[in-house]
Amino acid sequence: MAASSVSPMKPELPPKPTQELSKITGDQLPDRYIHQFPETAADHSAIKYMDNPIIDLNLLSAVSTHQPEELQKLRSSLSSWGCFQLRNHGLTSSLLHQIRQVEKEFFGLPLEVKQKHSRTLHWVEGYGNDTVSEDQKYCWNDRLVLKVYPVDQRNFKFWPEDLPKFRETLDEYTKEVRRVLEMILKAISKSLNLDENSFVRECEGDEGIYMLARFNLYPPCSTPDHVVGLKPHSDASAVTILLQDNEVEGLQVQKDNQWFKVPIVPDTLFINVGDQLEIMSNGILKSAVHKVVIDKERERTSVAIACFPYIEKEIGPISELIDKERPQLYKKVKNYISLYLQYSPTAERAITAMKL
């Protein structure tokens, strides 16, 4: 399908957030949230846990005698799964608790207060919901999306002013995630035998990295097999850094056309490759296809920070990763996010339009 043949997404805000619907609907879900799945697709109890390794950020440092082994683990994980769990990342347990706390405080605000920060129909930023498909079905989630970097581009009209610690906590969390991002990008470059700054240069350039924070709330649902927390998708980002719920599972990743549960590993960050890093790596790294399923009795929360190259920066496969054995697999592109949003309501992935 050519990119020009896909109509831009025009999301509509649902009349009630799922947080409110979960309190009153019981088994009578509004039709706009009901999805029909094959019986086998809904049997989450039969799904196995993923078995990719946990990466230790300390071991990726140049002073570690175990760096070569850890770099090999990193490359293997990202070329097969497209994701990994990161430990010893340097974010304190206190900061992880604080960011989770301000998230819960936001979603605990009265509806009329949260709606002051509602998203527009033309962009993802703000409080709202996600559509799943071209027929405007909705995901069973509420979310708050905020631009956090560059700092001078923050749209504070979307930031809740009723929570005094929200801004300072998110600011500190963003700085720490940006630190981890740079270390991860350097390690990924080394794992591919590139100069350690190769992916940093590609992602940041002269304009700096672009980062969106997304606070996710997945309320419980009495018929979880009929709803979608997040539809199967890969991210438009270069890298996404996720803080999972510390008690309730729900994230699943796809490998070899099979779904696997992502386990909860305390105090780790879940890191996944996005489409733009797959393109830059000429397909050596895989953009992780993932989804979220809903719990019948417990709500689930998470905090994701998606990291993008500057929107007008042209990206493409790094020249050192193109040779006779591995010819160029992807076109060069500017503003990949725009292409991604065009494909988002469809069942097709935007990255397919980038293949040569």
From TrEMBL:
Region (Disordered): 1-23
Segments forming domain Fe2OG dioxygenase: 209-309
A Pfam family it matches: 2OG-FeII_Oxy
Keywords: Iron, Metal-binding, Oxidoreductase
Family annotation (InterPro entries): DIOX_N (IPR026992), IPNS-like_FE2OG_OXY (IPR044861), IPNS-like_sf (IPR027443), Oxoglu/Fe-dep_dioxygenase_dom (IPR005123), Plant_2OG-oxidoreductases (IPR050295)
Domain of life: Eukaryota
GO molecular function: dioxygenase activity; metal ion binding
Family named by the database record: Belongs to the iron/ascorbate-dependent oxidoreductase family.
Name of this chain's protein: Jasmonate-induced oxygenase 4-like
Species name: Spinacia oleracea
